[in-house]
Amino acid sequence: MTDEPSDLPDSSRISVTDRFYISKEDLSEDFIRASGPGGQNVNKVSTAVQLRFNLAGNETLPQDIKSRAARLAGSRLTLNGEIVLRADRYRTRERNREDALERLLELLRKSTERQKPRKATRPTLASKKRRLEAKKQRGNIKKMRGRAGRQDD
Questions:
Q1: What is the CATH number of the domain that holds 101?
Q2: Separation of alpha carbons 40 and 51, rounded Å
Q3: What is the model's pTM?
């Protein structure tokens, strides 16, 4: 899907990796007031950015990457299939806009990496013996915690 030449101009797409990109049409931003300290500036100027990426409607990413991105997004994924990121770390709109976009691209880059399947292993005989010996020692320590003068039989 992404290996074919696209009819999108370079200015309307954002590169995720060297093979994958997203369209700027899948992004929308809203500017909202930031929370926290900042004096009058916080109350007057909407510098925080709420970036929305339409993951469900995206046509440039393969389905397996979309499903991994949805899993990585967690609670930031809406029921409509949008990833919503809020950035209010900086005092200016432009810095917050760049921060939100970079965090989205980082999430998408992580979703392009496939995890290696875990190989099931069994504990060695020596590790089993060490574990049981440690349990016996711990049990003996606890057994010694009885009242003074009490006789165990």
A1: 3.30.160.20
A2: 24
A3: 0.61
